[in-house]
Predict the structure.
Amino acid sequence: MQQLIGELMRTFDLAKSPLRELNEALHRQKDGANEAHWEVLNPRGGHAIAVGIDAPIEVDVRGSVGYYCAGMNKKASVTVHGSAGPGVAENMMSGKVVIKGDASQYAGATGRGGLLVIEGNASSRCGISMKGIDIVVKGNIGHMSAFMAQSGHLVVLGDAGDALGDSIYEAQLFVRGKVKSLGADCIEKEMRPEHHEALSKLLEGAGITDAKPSEFRRYGSARKLYNFNIDNADAY
Amino acid sequence: MCGIVGLFLKNPKMEPQLGELLSGMLSTMCERGPDSAGFAIYGAAEDGRTKITLQSAKASEDFAKLKAALAKNTKLDGKLSLHDTHAVLSVPSESIDDAKAMLATEFPTIRIMATGENIEIYKEVGYPTEVAKRFDLAHMSGTHAIGHTRMATESAVTTLGAHPFSTGADECLVHNGSLSNHASLRRELIRDGMTFNTENDTEVAASYLTWRMKQGMDLGQALEKSLDDLDGFFNFVVGTKEGFGVVRDPIACKPAVMAETDDYVAFGSEYRALAGLPGIDKAKVWEPEPATVYFWQR
């Protein structure tokens, strides 16, 4: 059945048809949809391309996209063959989003699940307030990434900018390169066997074969900021 | 919001297309700033002469009178060309102070938008594509140009509140963001002799840069210093006679993307602004780093 549905492909040219028609058509897709592969041409930095999909379909966007591409994604696999503007895969629920180029600020913000792979660099606030999403960045990430991150994983093969993981809750951060500075309550933690295993799975899921878990350092919450401390009772 | 576009040509063969390319870029940023628009264009200099870009709310009346006054004052040797609500007065460079004095005393309703050998600044209230059409931007040529579409936040929607702002001879500034310490900084600058036409926060930034350069800094140093002294959100794009610069505040919330090829360097608030440029598919495209001054010079 999977093979059968994989054979039908629809091409949608944004130079000829409006974005709203594309998104409406994508929203009509359901589980077992027979239009399982979509190709989007001429995105030219347009906003909100392929947002809100709720079906296990594949979407290939040929070019660079603007704000909020693949936001709220559920089940779908969206690949951008170019760079992405701010808020790519914002609040993703499940599925997979791959950016072949760079991503602008707050990539994967508030994401609840699924996998976001950025093959280039991501700028500031990558994974801000992430709540279960897994994000793998092959390049570098900008400042204030994983700010108030609650759960999920952020894997960075390159370097991280200032204030990584500021006010972090329980997300796990893995960085292979340098970290310019850690944010409030974010500390380096030991890499135990379960972290090697989790990281290995994340790298595999992102199709990365040239990075070993042992090359990474792990960062997470010192848990001093968000837990109530009886010594501070007088302050309230 | 607000939208910024900028194009600095490296290939002189493209100079006749500058206005057309900038006009296309500006038209993609209308939603980011639908209330007013403006642009600075660096065109050909005329040997030994300086241009003053003028604007008037009663342009036909004022400019007709100015034309008559120039015809009488043959010593000044001023040439006037009209562009809708704006006009460009060209005078021998040594007569620039005389020209400004005449404007100030005899034409109080005419405002000076820019002064310089190359720069011309045009800005008006209205939808950006309409503003570009009024001034016939598409047919202008030059070496580099900066455009702005405004969604007013800090002050009223007026011609003078639109961008670019002049920061000195052949220099200009456009801004996306909002400054939070502009009122106190304006008071300090006024105390130090600077003058203001509007309540606009960007005018304070422009005046700040001019003030720093009067103290002996070059534009790059003034921009570096602005990172310490200006509080708030800003993406600045600045133009000089020979160059084009970009700086973002350390938080860098306001969007910015740049592209470079052998032919040009381009700035856009969004990739949409760059999507129509020739050779964009092969260009190096990147996001400028926060708190970092970028500068290109011919």
